[in-house]
Amino acid sequence: MPQGISIREFARREGVSDTLVRKALKLNRLKAFDDKTIDPALVGTAWRESNAKGANPSANGSQSVRSSQPVRTETPFVPRDGESLPDAASRFVDSGIGMVSYAEALEKKENYLALLRQLEYEQKAGSLVDLDTATAILFEEFRAQRDAWLNWPTRVGPLVAADLGVEADRVVEALTAHVHKQIAQLGEPEANFSEREG
């Protein structure tokens, strides 16, 4: 009888977890000797392919799981109408999308997910407001201030005229002209939230 190796050693040689090897033994994809060791000749055989086929019934078995050839994936980057493939590739390279390693991409993804969670927390805590809501509130505030200034000459003009002993209509008219000029110089209210003061 050939000399067998332990499940853990077999898993180490295959580069898989011993849990996967135990599962394969249970499903009779691998055969163990009576002493529960495994024939070392089975290392590198197709027992893992049958695991992959069992997990993915659409697999046709044409490519070995241990194949050293790279797996081709289709890119979502599609040429525009009338654009040749080399032009599209050139545009993709020039677009500034950097190619990074898997570890860097994973780190970037986790950082962005953490930032999204922080934004969600701040929004639920009430310290973060939707941009459209903030813009609408500021617009209403500016409009209220503008209306208050437009009404100011008719409210204050007669009081100023009484203090100076002049005609109220002329004072209201003069104040109204100056207020309109000032409001025109101020222009339309704009809420620019993209710039932060440091």
Counting DSSP H or I runs of 4 or more residues, the number of helices is 7
Q: Tell me the total number of β-strands.
A: 0
Q: Write down the overall mean pLDDT.
A: 78
How far is the N terminus from the C terminus?
Answer: 78 Å
Assign the structural class, choosing from mainly alpha, mainly beta, alpha/beta, alpha+beta, or little secondary structure.
mainly alpha
Order of helices and strands: HHHHHHH
How would you characterize the largest beta sheet? none
Task: Report Rg.
Answer: 38 Å
Overall morphology? elongated
The gist of it:
This protein is mostly helical. Helix content is 57%, strand content 0%.
Question: What are the main properties of this structure?
Answer:
57% helix, 198 residues, mainly alpha, elongated, single chain, 0% strand
List the helices and strands and how they pair.
Elements: H1 7-14, H2 18-26, H3 47-55, H4 85-94, H5 102-125, H6 131-164, H7 168-186
Describe this structure in words.
There is one protein chain. The radius of gyration is 38 Å and the shape is elongated. It is 57% helix and 0% strand. The protein is built from 7 helices and no strands. The model is unreliable at 53-75 (pLDDT under 50). Among the domains are: 7-55, no CATH class; 131-186. The chain has helices at residues 7-14, 18-26, 47-55, 85-94, 102-125, 131-164, 168-186. It is mostly helical and 198 residues long.
